[in-house]
Task: inverse folding
């Protein structure tokens, strides 16, 4: 899964696209390297039973004001079709298992495992960046993105790269142990 650290004016938030142990360990290490011990929120977009274990591991390292999950059976569940606002001009939305981060005018789309672009409304298909965490969605060519990031284990990379829309927009490849940094000014832009 992907670990996404958001930051603005000394405030931080974390999005983890998997709720497994490896993603939580990667998040803990990232926070430690960055010297971050407090988060405004943590969002787990995965839905597995490992959520409680992952959350407990992360709580040992960092204080979070708010915990959100996509797991329907969790008391902190972030339901399909809902949104949460943060930092005045930022928002997290959920639709059909997908997550969309709106940071000012910049749109970041997070693909769920076994995602299908055909289920998304047309405005969700227009994005500045898309993160494929562990899989490439069905109907991926229906996305209109400016860039993409594929995060996966090294052993599945050869299989997944056959599904990636090469040449349509720049796509970075990374294993779960590497870091990809995307920055935005909130003006519909993304930069390395």
Result:
């Amino acid at each position: 899964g992907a670990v996404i650290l958001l930051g603005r004016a000394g405030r931080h938030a974390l999005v983890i696209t998997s709720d497994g142990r490896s993603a939580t360990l990667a998040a803990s290490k990232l926070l430690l390297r960055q010297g971050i011990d407090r988060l405004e929120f943590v969002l787990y977009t995965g839905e597995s039973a490992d959520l409680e274990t992952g959350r407990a591991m992360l709580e040992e390292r960092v204080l979070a004001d708010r915990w959100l999950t996509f797991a329907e059976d969790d008391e902190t569940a972030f339901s399909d079709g809902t949104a949460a606002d943060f930092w005045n001009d930022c928002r997290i939305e959920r639709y059909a298992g997908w997550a969309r981060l709106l940071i000012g005018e910049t749109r970041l789309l997070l693909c769920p495992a076994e995602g299908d672009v055909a289920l998304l409304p047309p405005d969700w298909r227009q994005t500045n960046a898309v993160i494929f965490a562990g899989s490439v969605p069905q109907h991926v060519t229906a996305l209109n993105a400016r860039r993409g990031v594929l995060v996966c284990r090294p052993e599945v990379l050869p299989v997944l790269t056959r599904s990636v829309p090469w040449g349509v927009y720049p796509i970075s490849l990374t294993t779960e142990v590497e870091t990809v940094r995307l920055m935005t000014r909130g003006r519909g832009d993304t930069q390395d």
Remarks:
- Residues 145 and 177 are 25 Å apart (CA to CA).
- The helical segments are 21-34, 51-59, 157-160.
- The chain has a mean pLDDT of 85.
- The longest strand covers residues 126-133.
